[in-house]
Amino acid sequence: MELPRMETPMLKGSCQQTDGVLLAALNGTAELPVQEALKAFVLEVQSAARGGGARQVDVDLKGLRFMSSSCFKVMVTWLATLGALPAEERYRVRFLSDPTQHWQKRSLSALAAFGGDLVEVVE
Amino acid sequence: MSEEDSQMTAAVELVFSPDLDFVGKVRAFASELSDHSAVPFEWKSQIEVALHEMLENAVKTTRVGQVRVRVQVSRCAGGLEVELRTWNRAPLEHLEELQKAVAAVSAAPDPMGYYLELMRRTALVENGSGLGLGRIRAEAGMNVDVEIEGDRACVTARATMGDA
């Protein structure tokens, strides 16, 4: 199965899969002009996670310099969809963050509060 | 705040076409202001978050004319006061929604709780994020206000950021 990939001038996304963990990395800036591209990428990541039986998805945001609320909402929708799945189909989502980018700390703690037990933030 | 008890350390004002491709560039340029004032580094990202949400909102809804933005940092009794303002012209139905949204976010006693409530409400709604104002208050720690005259809106986000 081909893994999801996104290539826009503003934002790039790529994936790797190892031992039940899908790693999705975002690099660049996530703003309204790339919201649709990000939405499509995240939907593909969700399909790849479920299709590949992943028990965990790591989302590497260390190369993400900024995310506006329009793209943050894509993550919120993902977590809401994940939470609505039957328990046996759910997987954990870990956001790998860069502590020197202070916006990530605040945005990701809000996402973690929203996602509950399914979400972890790693610095 | 009067001129006697405040001292402006830096300010920038820009006028630009309502083009989404400009939002990130204007945000980056305006936030550079904090490099030339006494704003601590960790606050810079809060200013960027609030500024971006305000700019994106103004650009998305502008139907006539330009978007104007001002970022101002002043010394005050509590430390530094950061004030962000945007001006734009938008359809009346949008301005009514904006006024209601600002009133609701400003009245919320627990900004993070309200932000989480907005996430729950909008997670599966297709159009718009509906999170921008909540994010300004909960993540950027800034109070939001709006003044409307006819089809003109002036949105203000303001915070006093400790001793610096």
Write structural notes for this entry.
The complex is a heterodimer of chains A (123) and B (164). Helix content of chain A is 37%, strand content 33%. Chain A is built from three helices and six strands, in the order βββαβαβαβ. With 123 residues, chain A is of the alpha/beta class. Chain A has a six-stranded mixed sheet. Chain A starts with 5 loop residues before the first strand and ends with a strand. The model of chain A has no long low-confidence stretch (mean pLDDT 95). By secondary structure, chain B is α+β, with helices and mostly antiparallel strands. In chain B, 41% of the residues lie in helices and 30% in strands. Chain B contains five helices and five strands, in the order E-H-H-E-E-H-H-H-E-E. Chain B has helices at 20-31, 41-61, 92-107, 111-122, 132-138, and strands at residues 7-16, 64-76, 79-89, 143-149, 152-160. Chain B has a five-stranded antiparallel sheet. In chain B, a hairpin with a 2-residue loop joins strand 2 and strand 3 (79-89). Chain B is globular. The mean pLDDT of chain B is 89.
Order the strands across the largest sheet of chain A as they lie in space.
Answer: 1-2-3-4-5-6
In DSSP terms (H or I, runs of 4 or more residues), the helix count of chain A works out at: 3
**Multimeric state:** heterodimer
Strand order of the largest sheet of chain B: 1-2-3-5-4
Structure annotation, total helices of chain B: 5
| Low-pLDDT stretches of chain A | none
Short key terms for the protein model shown above:
heterodimer, A: alpha/beta, 6 strands, 33% strand, globular, B: alpha+beta, 5 helices
Describe the secondary structure blueprint for this structure:
The complex is a heterodimer of chains A (123) and B (164).
Chain A: E1 6-7, E2 11-18, E3 21-30, H1 35-51, E4 56-67, H2 69-83, E5 92-96, H3 102-115, E6 119-122
Parallel strand pairs in A: 3-4, 4-5, 5-6
Antiparallel strand pairs in A: 1-2, 2-3
Chain B: E1 7-16, H1 20-31, H2 41-61, E2 64-76, E3 79-89, H3 92-107, H4 111-122, H5 132-138, E4 143-149, E5 152-160
Antiparallel strand pairs in B: 1-2, 2-3, 3-5, 4-5
Helix pairs in contact in B: 1-2, 2-5, 4-5
